[in-house]
Amino acid sequence: MNQILEKSHLNENVARMVIDAPLIAAKAEPGQFVILRVREEGERIPLTVAGFDRERGTVTIIYQIVGATTRLLDQLEQGDEILDFVGPLGRATATEGLQRVAVIGGGVGCAIAYPVVKKLHDQGTWVDTVIGFRSSGLAILDDEFSADSSRLFRVSDDGTYGEKGLVTDILRRLLENREQYDEVIAIGPLPMMKFVSLLTKQFGIKTVVSMNPIMIDGTGMCGCCRLTVGGKMRFACIDGPDFDGHEVDFDEAIARSSAYRAQERLADEHVCNLLKGGC
Amino acid sequence: MPNMDPRRQQMPVQAPDKRICNYDEVALGYTPEQAAAEAQRCLNCRNMPCVSGCPVQVQIPAFIRLLASGDTEGAYRKIIETNALPAVCGRVCPQESQCEKLCVRGIKGEPVAIGRLERYVADMHSAGLRDALKAPEKIDKPAAAVVGSGPAGLACAGELVRRGWRVTVFEALHQAGGVLVYGIPEFRLPKSIVRREIDALKAQGVEIRTNVVIGRSITVDELLEQGYDAVFLGTGAGLPKFMGIPGEGAIGVFSANEFLTRVNLMHAAQADSDTPVQRGHRVAVVGGGNVAMDAARCARRLGADVTIVYRRTRTELPARAEEVEHAMEEGIVFRFLTNPTEVLRDENGAACGLRCLRMELGEPDASGRRRPVEIPGSEHDIEADCVIMALGTSPNPLIRDTTKGLETQRWGGIITEEETGKTSRESVYAGGDAVTGAATVILAMGAGRQAARAIDEAYHARMEKNNAND
């Protein structure tokens, strides 16, 4: 089993854990994910790797409490062990040869965007980073992004963090100012990635999105994570999770992501009741 | 005198109306009296046609003779000389197209119920909780890595450990057993039996490491670098196929793998499981193999009206005869000569029906079965809020994509030397569905065992050569 070495909250609903996982730490690259389970009869959920330390043999995960499993995960503290923790899964984000990139992060998706920004920055790529949150209380990793971005643009729905607006407002301005990018990398909620892709398509800039559909095994076995990309069926777990944003059928992906919404809500309520105090 | 009754002993089963409300095993197993009577039907033929129909050459007349003489434990020992998982095979092998097909008693009546007797012997053995198989006298051979803990991997591991190898089995999921735990439902193969068989291997010294994805967590090359003398790839054929028709991305459309994994591995039907599964009102299952029957019967137990849509006729159904009969008894409707062309969707992107064409059988195709041909203008819709695609699977690409020099077929199967399971890579062997594409538990086990023998023989050959050189 894999022990939790550190745990800290980044905001009320988002926490970071550093997990002892030498096998995964030895191999993990930005863009890849792990699958974990927190209890017997628990579900398997994918979480994208938010960082790793090959020497220490640790993997960092950042999760938002959105349902039963993340709520149970958040009950674990430093020193506890995670029942099942497997990875790294999926393909790494391709960064080779990129000179100028804009990385767009939305909400907790920023947890996944950050290692990509860092990798690009470390290899000498110019990185314009645009991060957006609903409000300042939900912002995460500001220091990290500041340190590793060539330029950092902050934006929030209510204007309490950076500018008021959407990440696409900033990106549009950059593109209209004739900023040249080899690629735009967008990581966040499905609607955000959809609108980033629609925007960049107008400017003809290649765009990579990180898809996070419902998964079970994460190794290509169940087909639950299938997406339509360029008219073809692809599995996010083995073909992705990164795909060409101009080719992804986002409307289908958005519909599929809601397949179990009712059950998810019930399961979460059940966990809340178990944990008493309510949520 | 043998028992000359032309008919075999009937298998006691749970009544259909009762069993569709639970997940308990359907076939209940012979009583001692039934087993004795059935064992006496075996003529003990000298040329043993049945054995030649068994992919692992279980010594069938020999074990049945021991059983008939009252030595059930002796019969068990006889079976496990060649078959590591008798309780599993007795339940899931397609005996009617293997050993029992060649049984002489089948010429003028029903063949000896070999599978049921195998199951009886295995169940009696474990009910007695006899001294579990102990670790071999000495483990004095190098380490071998077995990738995948399904039938091929377990059979390979069992044979290697018996021959004195140090064996580690790597499993990607959180639980060992492969298709035996994620695919085949509880009512056909109780998971306690799989666990027992795996525990027996562990007791013999096999180490099982779950949550390790070979090809991702560790590559095959790294296993060899880490000092494993040989690697066996028993990774199965896990990648589900879809039809490529419009609407397959709709909510409510599943691969059989997904549906079965939710129910079997993740226990989605249990109240205490966190994994949900859609409980359809009307479920359409596309396909006619064992997996289609398993998915249909699970959906039935979840409370749905279930229709199996199959493009050929009952004669061509590839599923075990018993599974088809059980499915029919459970009220599952079969629509033969019917082929889907589109999944119909409602305004929320959820499946609401299956558009189909009727078919007729034309000339035989490459498989020797008559090819289904569309009847023009026969388009019609079947109501369905859940559609399960059980169209077969192909090998997972993870290992072939990460192992340089490992040759594969164009469709993904690993290329091996038939007798030994040797791949194009030195010290790397493969067997089971990863090589053949989706087939049966027993064929995979046969291949696993064969590769284990080849691994052991290659080791001995090397040792002899070294000794000769000294």
Describe the structure.
The complex is a heterodimer of chains A (279) and B (470). Chain A has helices at residues 22-25, 68-75, 110-122, 142-148, 167-176, 190-203, 236-239, 250-257, 261-274, and strands spanning 2-11, 14-20, 33-37, 45-53, 58-64, 81-82, 84-89, 100-106, 126-133, 151-156, 163-164, 183-187, 207-210, 226-229, 232-235, 242-244. With 279 residues, chain A is an alpha/beta fold. Chain A folds into two domains: 2-89, Elongation Factor Tu (Ef-tu), domain 3 (Beta Barrel), CATH 2.40.30.10; 100-257, 3-Layer(aba) Sandwich (Rossmann fold), CATH 3.40.50.80. In chain A, the strands form three sheets. A seven-stranded antiparallel beta sheet of chain A has the order 6-1-2-5-4-3-7. The longest helix of chain A is centred in the last third of the chain and has 14 residues, at 190-203. The model of chain A has no long low-confidence stretch (mean pLDDT 94). By secondary structure, chain B is of the alpha/beta class. Chain B has three domains: 16-127, Fumarate Reductase Iron-sulfur Protein, Chain B, domain 2; 143-238 and 394-469, 3-Layer(bba) Sandwich (FAD/NAD(P)-binding domain); 246-391, 3-Layer(bba) Sandwich (FAD/NAD(P)-binding domain), CATH 3.50.50. Chain B is 34% helix and 16% strand. Chain B has 17 helices and 16 strands. Chain B has helices spanning 16-19, 32-39, 49-52, 60-68, 72-80, 86-92, 114-127, 151-162, 179-182, 191-203, 220-225, 256-265, 290-301, 321-329, 398-402, 433-436, 441-469; strands at residues 143-147, 166-170, 207-209, 230-233, 239-240, 253-255, 282-286, 305-309, 333-335, 338-345, 351-364, 370-374, 380-383, 386-389, 393-394, 428-430. In chain B, the strands form four sheets. Chain B has a five-stranded parallel beta sheet. Chain B starts with 15 loop residues before the first helix and ends with a helix. The A-B interface holds A 23-24, 27, 37, 39, 41-44, 68-69, 83-89, 216-217, 219-224, 226-228, 233, 238, 249, 251-252, 255-256, 258-260, 263-264, 267 and B 172-174, 182, 210-213, 216-218, 238-240, 242, 244, 248-252, 254-255, 257-258, 261-262, 266-267, 270, 272-276, 278, 348-350, 396-398.
